[in-house]
From TrEMBL:
Organism: Selaginella moellendorffii (Spikemoss)
Domain of life: Eukaryota
Lineage: Eukaryota, Viridiplantae, Streptophyta, Embryophyta, Tracheophyta
Protein's UniProt keywords contain DNA repair: no
UniProt name for this protein: Peptidase A1 domain-containing protein
GO BP, one annotated term: proteolysis
Keywords from the UniProt entry: Hydrolase, Protease
Length: 152
């Protein structure tokens, strides 16, 4: 994915935001296309289905009753200074539909469009699950660290 997909252009368009109020993540072109193509090549064993009103992303029907989501390819977000955010499976899949027999799960990344048309990258709350996020407004930085956020 070219670095330009994550930069703010000379007109102030683009960039990347962390937003806990946005459910899933949005990626601009060509970042979104690259993720969808790479992800799709690694989940050929799943039964692909159509999207929903929420997302027209990669969606799959899986048998209901499993306590875990199907294995997902490792998705890692790379940031400046060699900082990586490895996403857990629950942060990659979003369950959208459920019947007694089938659960529809979709890739939790949506196409934000081109930067020139106002597209912006947003790291949503699905991808922020099980991370402590720190917003340092004075130094214009964000920090994060893995955390076990499951309540017993």
């Amino acid at each position: 994915i070219p670095r330009s997909a994550f930069k703010i252009d000379r007109l102030g368009n683009g960039g990347t935001y962390f937003d806990s109020g946005t459910t899933v993540s949005f990626l601009v072109e060509p970042a979104h296309t690259a993720l969808v193509e790479a992800f799709g090549r690694r989940v050929l064993h799943l039964n692909r289905t159509s999207g929903s009103d929420f997302t027209n992303e990669l969606c799959y029907d899986v048998a209901a009753g499993y306590s875990r989501l199907p294995r997902a390819p490792l998705v890692t977000l790379h940031f400046k200074n060699n900082v990586d955010m490895e996403l857990r499976e629950a942060s990659v899949w979003v369950p959208l539909a459920r019947t007694p027999q089938v659960v529809t799960i979709c890739l939790a990344f949506v196409n934000a469009g081109a930067v020139a048309q106002g597209g912006v990258n947003v790291i949503g709350n699905y991808q922020q699950q099980d991370y402590l996020i720190e917003h340092d407004l004075e130094r214009s930085r964000i920090g994060f660290a893995p955390a076990n956020c499951v309540m017993d």
